[in-house]
Write the structure tokens for this entry.
Amino acid sequence: MTTEATTLIGAVQMRALRASDAGPLSAAYRQNRNYLAPWEPARTEEFFTPAGQRAVIESKLASQVAGQEVPWVLLAGSHIIGAITLTGIVRGPFLSANVGYWVDQEFTGRGIGSAAMGCVLAAAKDDLGLHRVQAATLKHNAASRKILGRAGFEEIGMAPAYLKIAGSWQDHVLFQRILE
Ligand SMILES: CC(C)(COP(=O)(O)OP(=O)(O)OC[C@H]1O[C@@H](n2cnc3c(N)ncnc32)[C@H](O)[C@@H]1OP(=O)(O)O)[C@@H](O)C(=O)NCCC(=O)NCCS
């Protein structure tokens, strides 16, 4: 899979996560800390530091080498303004992965999340040979549901107490996109 940057919209680009992203990524998470808090797991203080992000990235890149994960970042110039990641890649008869994503609050509503999703679905099908991508959202996450609807995901059910988000086990709506 290419590690070259792909242009998404305007000057916004998407490329594979790199070890050298720890500084800009920690800055982006600090900038969006309150905005992302309702939609993400509770974070440690360490998570918002370059050292914390170095450890997170190291773990993600190790998962990538093991074939379990593919992480990308979204960039405006040298600033990271979002991320999108395929996690839990399973091969065999499942050929499935989960997708997770966020976009910097200052950049939302411009189609960046949707464009990134389009690129990731193409990579999941053409580069990884997957059959299916799954996403899980909180019921009231209208922006996320809009991205999924636009990308052709179908709702497949409600999973009670599915993920620990913002410190509590919360019900999630599950969506899948069959790639063939
Ligand atoms: C969800 C998220 C990635 C969307 O990114 P984005 O770049 O704004 O996405 P897009 O611009 O491609 O599409 C978002 C759509 O949702 C719409 N939207 C945003 N907030 C909305 C709301 N409260 N109610 C209804 N629609 C809303 C936008 O208008 C846009 O639709 P449009 O293009 O028809 O106008 C971003 O809001 C985010 O990072 N949220 C916090 C983290 C998160 O929820 N991640 C997903 C977890 S499942």
Notes: The pocket of coenzyme A is lined by residues 36, 39, 101-103, 108-114, 137, 141-144, 146-147 (CB under 6 Å).
